[in-house]
Amino acid sequence: MSLCGNWTAGFPQLSEKSQDVFDEGTILPEPDYQGTRGYIESLAKQINASYEHNIFDGCAVLMRRLFEILLILRTASWASRLLSRTATANFQMLERLSTTLRPIPSWAFPATAKGA
Fold first, then answer.
1. pLDDT digits (tens, 9 = 90+) for 16-51
2. Residue 45 domain-assigned?
3. What would the DSSP string read from start to end of 64-75?
4. Torsion angle, CA of 38/32/69/24, rounded to 10 degrees?
5. Among 78, 85, 21, 83, which Cα is nearest to 52's?
6. What is the Cα gyration radius of the chain?
7. Helices 56-76 and 38-52, interaxial angle, to 10°?
8. Which structural domain range is residue 44 located in?
9. What is residue 1's predicted lDDT score, i.e. its pLDDT?
């Protein structure tokens, strides 16, 4: 018998799949992400919904994920100046990217940002 047992027997609603995320735009206003890539819109809705339902740790994790995606998308367009991928074609970790980007003036990290 599995450790979790048969949870869906006691909670049949858990077996229903829901892809709709409803939010009020508390953290990220809808006009800021509306019309962008689908996965970014979905992530922004999840960020708002998790915050609105007091799931703050989850919200923080999702915000970091969004930041990493946006960082990768921005650096991907700079292929000639900066490669965000390692020699094995894997994307670099956030810490290494921030260390690489820090000296580039157009990134303008605030003075209060922690060093990598």
1. 766 677 788 788 999 999 999 999 999 999 999 999
2. yes
3. HHHHHHHHHHHH
4. -70
5. 21
6. 19
7. 160
8. 20-82
9. 44
